[in-house]
Amino acid sequence: MAIFSTLTPVFLAVLCILIAIIFKNFKKSEKKPKTDSKPPVPSRPWVDEDLEDDTEINPGEDDEELAESEGDVSHVPFSLPRYSEAEMLHRSQEFYALMNGRRSVRFISPEPVPRDIIENVIRAAGTAPSGAHTEPWTFVVVADAQTKSEIRRIVEEEEEINYKLRMGEKWVTDLKRLRTNWVKEYLDTAPYLILIFKQTYGMHPSGKKRTHYYNEISVSISCGILLAALQNAGLVTVTTTPLNCGPQLRQLLQRPLNEKLLMLLPVGFPSEDATVPQLSRKPLDDIMVFV
Amino acid sequence: MAIFSTLTPVFLAVLCILIAIIFKNFKKSEKKPKTDSKPPVPSRPWVDEDLEDDTEINPGEDDEELAESEGDVSHVPFSLPRYSEAEMLHRSQEFYALMNGRRSVRFISPEPVPRDIIENVIRAAGTAPSGAHTEPWTFVVVADAQTKSEIRRIVEEEEEINYKLRMGEKWVTDLKRLRTNWVKEYLDTAPYLILIFKQTYGMHPSGKKRTHYYNEISVSISCGILLAALQNAGLVTVTTTPLNCGPQLRQLLQRPLNEKLLMLLPVGFPSEDATVPQLSRKPLDDIMVFV
Fold first, then answer.
1. Under a CB-based contact definition with an 8 Å cutoff, are residues A57 and A131 in contact?
2. For A31-52, how does the pLDDT look when each residue is reduced to its tens digit (9 = 90+)?
3. Is B4 a residue whose pLDDT tops 90?
4. How far is the alpha carbon of A129 from chain B, nearest alpha carbon, in Å?
5. Superfamily, domain B89-272
6. Please, what CATH class does the domain formed by A92-272 belong to?
7. Hey, where are the domains in chain A?
8. Size of the A and B interface in Cβ pairs below 8 Å
9. What ipTM describes this predicted complex?
C-alpha cells in the first residue's frame, strides 16, 4: 500500500492529462458526424433546370445574394418551327446518322481551321441549359504553338506518372484496347486545344460569391452540344480529362481560382492516316426501356 | 495521504477504463485521416475518353476484371466527309442558330409524338463518348398515362417539401424569376417522360462488378446530345433533376440498384400558350478566351 500511496500524486497527474486527452478526442469526434452525416433537413436547394454535381455551396457567404437577385423576369411567348411528321422523322434520322459518324480521334492533322468555325461551335456550346441559368463555363481556345507545347509538357509529365505509377493493372488493360498511352502528339499538332473550365462559383458586382448549382453537369451537357457542333462542322476531337493537371493548366492559362479544368479537347481535321479502335455501340434495346 | 491510499485501487480501475477509452478513440482517429485526406499517390486511374465524377471505384471487387478484358481491339482507318471552308462556316452557323432557338420549356402540349422519333433521338444520345467506352446510360421512356401520374405524384410530393422546407430563401428567389414551383403539370401532359439513369457500375457475365469511370459526366454529355437531337426534331423539353426522388422513381420503374436517376426530361411539342422567361445568353466574349 505504501508504494501506491507515494504514487497517488503521479496518478492524479496522469489522470488529469488523460481526462484532457479524452476531452480533446471527444470534441473531435463530436464534430465529425456533423460534417459526415447528412442533416435531417438538407439545405441543398432544389433545381429545375440542371443537375447534381459537386457544386460548392457556401450558404454563409451567399446571404446577401437575395438583395441582388434580378427579381421576377418577364415571360414571353415561345414557339418552334413546326415540321411535318415525315420531316421530323427524316431530321431525327439524319441527326442520328451524323452523330453516329462521330468517333474519338487521337490523330489530328496540323492543317489550319478558320477561327470563325471554332467561334461558332463555342457559341453553340454556350446555348446549353445550366442550373438557375448561371452559364458556368469558360472555353479557353489555345492556338498559340508555344502554349500548346507547354500544355503538352504538363499533360505528358503527369500522365506518364499516372500511367506508370498510379494506375491499377486493370485500368491499363482497359485502356490498352484503345491504344492509349501518355504520349499526346495531338497536343502539339491539333490547330486548336479547347480547355473547358467549370466555374464552381461566380461573383456578384459587390464581390460576393454566387453559387453555381450543378456546375459540373451543366458544363458536361454543354460539352455534349460542343461535340455535336464539331461533328456537324466536319471536325474531330477526343474528350480527355487530364488527371492532376488542372491546377497547373489553370495557372498557365491565368484562369481565376473559381475555375476548374473539366475537359481538354484537341480539335482539327483527322490526319490522313487516322485510325480508331474497332468498337461498336450498344443497340437501342440495350440503352432504352419503353414503359 | 490516507485518503489517497484507500482510493488508489479506485484510481487504478479508473485509469484502466480511461486507457481503454483512449485506445478506442485513438484507433478511430487513426482510421479517419486515411479516408478523409488524399493519399500521396492516388489510385484513381487516368482516363482519356471521359471525365471526373462520382464514379464508384471498388478496387477490391474489380480484381478479376483483368482476366475478362477484351484485350487489344484492332484499329481501323477513320475518315470524315470533308466540307469546303464555306460549307463548314455555313454548317456551323446553321447549327448554332438551331441550338440558339432551344429553350427550357415547361408548357408541353398533350399532342402525341411518333415513337420512331423518340427512338432516333435516343439513338443519337447513345453515340456519346464515355469513360473507357462503358456507355453507362439507361433511357427510360414513359408513355403510359398511369405511370406518368405516379411519377408526377412522387415528384410533386418531394418538391413541395423541398420548396417549402428545405430550400433557402435565396434559392426560392433565384427560381422565382423562372416562375418555377412544385406543380409539374407537364409530367402528366407531355406525351413522353425520358428518365435518364446513370449506371454507377456494370456487371461482367461472371457477375463481377465492372467500374464505370466518369459515369456522371459521360451521361451528362449524352444528355447534351439528346437535347440537340430533340431541338433538331422540333421537340421541346426542360432538363430537370428531381431532388430526393431518385430511389422512389428507380423502384417504380424497376431499375436495378446500380442505376441512379440523373435527369428527368418531359418531351413533346410546346403548348400553344407556352412562355419562357425573357433571359439572354452570355455573349461569346464572356464565355471564350482565345490564346
1. no
2. 433 333 333 333 333 333 333 3
3. no
4. 7
5. NADH Oxidase (3.40.109.10)
6. alpha beta
7. 92-272
8. 507
9. 0.76
Locate the chain A residue with the closest alpha carbon to B45: A167
For B280, nearest residue in chain A (alpha carbons): A133
pLDDT for residue A105 is more than 50: yes
Ranges A50-59, A234-243, A270-279, B144-153: which has the least confidence: A50-59
Closest CA to B235 of B286, B269, B192, B203: B269
Q: What is the mean pLDDT of chain B?
A: 80
Region A62-66 average pLDDT? 30
Sign of the Cα torsion A184, A188, A193, A197 reads positive
The mean per-residue pLDDT over the stretch A105-122 comes to 97
Residues 6+ apart with CB under 8 A from B62: A168, A170, B208, B209, B210, B211
Res. B73 pLDDT band, cuts 50 70 90? confident
The stretch A16-28 carries a mean pLDDT of: 54
From chain B, pick out residues whose CB is under 8 angstroms from the CB of A210. Answer: none
Cβ–Cβ < 8 Å for A264, B72? no
Give the closest-approach CA distance of A120 to chain B in angstroms.
6
Q: Rounded to whole angstroms, how far apart are CA atoms B97 and B117?
A: 22
Helices (H), chain A: 2-36, 65-68, 85-100, 115-125, 145-161, 169-176, 186-189, 215-233, 246-252, 284-287
- Flag if B82 and A234 touch (Cβ within 8 Å): yes
Distance of residue A80 Cα from the nearest chain B Cα, in angstroms: 7
Q: What is the pLDDT of residues B123-143, one digit of tens each?
A: 999 999 998 899 999 999 999
Tell me which residues of chain A, numbers 192 to 211, contact chain B at a CB-CB cutoff of 8 Å.
Answer: none
Put simply, the chain B residues between 22 and 61 with a CB less than 8 A from any chain A CB are 22, 25-26, 28-29, 32, 41-54, 59
Residues 133-172 of A with CB under 8 A from B: 133, 135, 137-144, 147, 159, 162-163, 165-171
Question: Does pLDDT of A5 surpass 70?
Answer: no
Taking CB atoms and an 8 Å cutoff, what residues of chain B touch A232?
Answer: 91-92, 95
